[in-house]
Design a protein that fits this description.
This protein has 160 residues and is α+β, with helices and mostly antiparallel strands. Helices cover 21% and strands 20% of the residues. The chain has helices at residues 5-17, 68-78, 118-127; strands at residues 19-20, 29-30, 33-35, 53-56, 85-88, 96-102, 146-149, 154-159. A 6-stranded mixed sheet has the order 3-4-7-8-6-5, covered by helices on one side. Strands 1-2 form a two-stranded antiparallel sheet. A hairpin with a 7-residue loop joins strand 5 and strand 6 (96-102). The protein starts with a helix and ends with a strand.
């Protein structure tokens, strides 16, 4: 796998500390660690995890979202509302579905507004954590989606 030196350094630091702190000193945000979809599975939704897990959809296939900026704007809108699943940009190259659920809360606390670090987790792990900055295999920085499962019971999912 070819990775830019800056991205590689970022990954090594994030892995070593398991956290990323905002530059302006805001609260630390857990960093997801991408895994291969063949080795990670959410078969048992009741199991607890010891670190955040990301299952990447990969950077191949027929379905992707063309504009990262559009996804980020959709994530900001999604995280401010109550519906646990929303579809955006239908019938365009930026069509996507965003979903959030809490495995530990039953039917309570299922809205994106309730999810701690909703925007940061979507942006850092789901949108950019799997396929960003890979100029060799993904030169246009298309986004193929991912599912993030966090230690506090939340699942964040983007499907193109």
């Amino acid at each position: 796998m070819n990775m830019s030196p800056i991205l590689l350094l970022h990954c090594l630091i994030a892995t070593a500390y398991g956290l990323a702190t905002e530059a302006d000193g805001r609260e630390s945000v857990p960093v997801a660690r991408p895994t291969d979809a063949r080795t990670a599975s959410f078969r048992n939704s009741e199991r607890s995890i010891v670190q955040d897990e990301t299952v990447c959809h990969g950077i191949t296939g027929d379905y992707w979202v063309m504009s990262r900026d559009t996804i980020i704007e959709n994530v900001r809108l999604f995280c401010e509302q109550d519906a646990p699943v929303m579809r955006y940009n239908e019938d365009t190259v930026n069509e996507l579905e965003l979903e959030v659920k809490n495995w530990n809360a039953g039917t309570d606390l299922q809205s994106p507004k309730d999810a701690r670090f909703c925007i940061d987790r979507f942006q850092d792990a789901v949108v950019d954590g799997c396929d960003g900055n890979d100029m060799l295999n993904n030169p246009y920085n298309y986004k193929f989606g991912a599912t993030l499962r966090t230690t506090d019971g939340w699942q964040f999912k983007m499907t193109p």
